Amino acid sequence: MTPADAYPWLKALHVACALLFVGGLVASSLILVAGRGAADRTAALTLILRRWDRAVTVPAMLGVWAFGIGLAVSGGWFSYSWLQAKLVLVVLLSAIHGLQSGQIRRLATGHDIKPLRVSALVVPTVIAIAILAVIKS
Amino acid sequence: MGTDRWQDEWLQGPGQPEKVVPTVERAQLDLRQLRWLRIAAVAEATTLILLIGVAVPLKHLGEWPAGVRVLGPTHGFAFVAYLWLVLQSFGAGLVSRGEAGRLVLAAFVPMAGFLAAHFLTSRAAAPLDRRLSR
């Protein structure tokens, strides 16, 4: 398979992983808001989310990075400013997910959590990433 | 129905539904998390050293850019994985804000990742009550 043949597959898998990752990120944000100060009320939901996070969201995040790096290498895009800006935003989303994942773990062990204000950046960051990926300028 | 049983097992685990994680089990989870973080610190530090100590000089002095093409993305992946694990440990209360800040800073300094791994080894060896009090 040549790099040109692999491109649509890499792109499709990258988009699929991105959709699953963002879905998990938004779900985590909502559960963490609901669970704050009411860990016992959301305990069952937190355990389900923790399983989902480990089984789907984390592998999807790793897939986003692996397929995204593959795409950038095959297209020779690392020197383009749109990709550099997008990389910063994806690192930000990954960092937010890391914090959320830790808080879900804490919530699942019966501890209370502090508010995670940075979660408010998820929606604008996803919109900015989509614009950068499509417009590429 | 089979599907319902599969859904119940996936959501709640086989047998009884999960309750709050007991203390000993939680301590084992903490140790596993610290072990992963230590592995990520070593991987990040190793790829950084190989990138700036071998691949970059080979590109500029030996006109061999293939090393950077391979090690650049590899180090990027290792960096993100390490950053994610540091933040997850911080979110879970395993490391303090200051410790998380120093662990992140260590990712930018060559060799400092190995010091971070050493710190994480001593943290994992700390008494159970000290780890759980965080």
Percent strand of chain B equals under 5%
Rg result of chain A: 17 Å
What oligomeric state is this? heterodimer
How many individual helices of chain B?
A: 6
Strand content of chain A: under 5%
Provide the helix percentage of chain A: over 70%
**Percentage of residues in helical conformation of chain B:** over 70%
Largest interface: A-B, 30 and 28 residues
Distance between the termini of chain A: 29 Å
How many H/I helices of chain A? 4
- Summed over residues and divided by their number, the pLDDT of chain B gives a mean of 82
Q: The biggest beta sheet of chain B, please?
A: none
Net shape of chain A: elongated
Flag low-confidence runs of chain B.
14-19
Structural shape of chain B: elongated
Derived from helix and strand composition plus strand pairing, the structural class of chain B reads mainly alpha
Order of helices and strands of chain A: HHHH
In round numbers, the mean pLDDT of chain A is 90
Task: Explain what this protein looks like in three dimensions.
The complex is a heterodimer of chains A (137) and B (134). Chain A is mainly alpha-helical and 137 residues long. Chain A has one domain. Chain A has 4 helices and no strands. In chain A, helix 1 runs antiparallel to helix 2 and helix 3 packs antiparallel against helix 4. The longest helix of chain A has 33 residues, at 3-35. Chain A starts with a helix and ends with a helix. The model of chain A has no long low-confidence stretch (mean pLDDT 90). With 134 residues, chain B is an all-alpha fold. Chain B is 78% helix and 0% strand. Chain B contains 6 helices and no strands. Chain B has helices at residues 2-12, 23-61, 66-91, 97-106, 112-125, 128-132. In chain B, helix 2 runs antiparallel to helix 3 (66-91), helix 3 (66-91) runs antiparallel to helix 4 (97-106) and helix 4 (97-106) packs antiparallel against helix 5 (112-125). The termini of chain B are far apart. The model of chain B is unreliable at 14-19 (pLDDT under 50).
